[in-house]
Amino acid sequence: MDLIQAIKERRSINFFEPGKELSDGQIKKLLAIANLSPSSFNLQPWRVVVVKNPERKKALRQCAFNQPKAEEASAVLIMIADPKGVEENIDRMLNSWQELGYMKPEMRETYKGMTQNLYGTEDSLTRKIFAVKNTSLFAMNIMIAAKGLGLETHPMDGFDEGCIKKEFNIPADKIIPMLIAVGYLKSGVTLLPRAFRRDLSEFVRFE
Predict the structure, then answer these.
(1) Which of 4, 16, 178, 202 has the highest Cβ tally under 10 A?
(2) DSSP strand E in 27-88: where?
(3) Contacts (Cβ under 8 Å, ≥6 apart) of 32
């Protein structure tokens, strides 16, 4: 599907075809495309738990205020923002930059210092915002890529984060900005027209 068309046709759907599975290969293909998402300093501070098993989806549904789509979608992606992504990924990122000619070796420590100044300590609010912001870029790429692959999605923020962390063994220092339900539109369901969108004049200013 054409990129612009995919953006225009992407919808957040509530009714997924139950029992229609996605293979691990399909999900890996989707995530590999989405993984081309931009991120601050290319630090990619995200992780994903793919929930496909029917029993695990039932458990997730209970953490998501009993929303049917958490169980009926082919898979639900638990999007995890990782504040420790800076420390975990910076050396590999700088190695890549150096090998590809983006950076001279003598600039390595300068760039490390820049990331600390920009994103703060692991437990700071600045660092948490950094992680969530970049994971959200990745999440949007997932939803656009899914549409291009003939799949439907719904980003979900109605859930008990503590429940999900406990049920799916996610460390307390991580943040879950959203879940993304992925699958196919339920047969026989016709989507209503796209709802209200603000006019650009309400929120755009040129200077």
Answers:
(1) 16
(2) 46-51, 75-81
(3) none
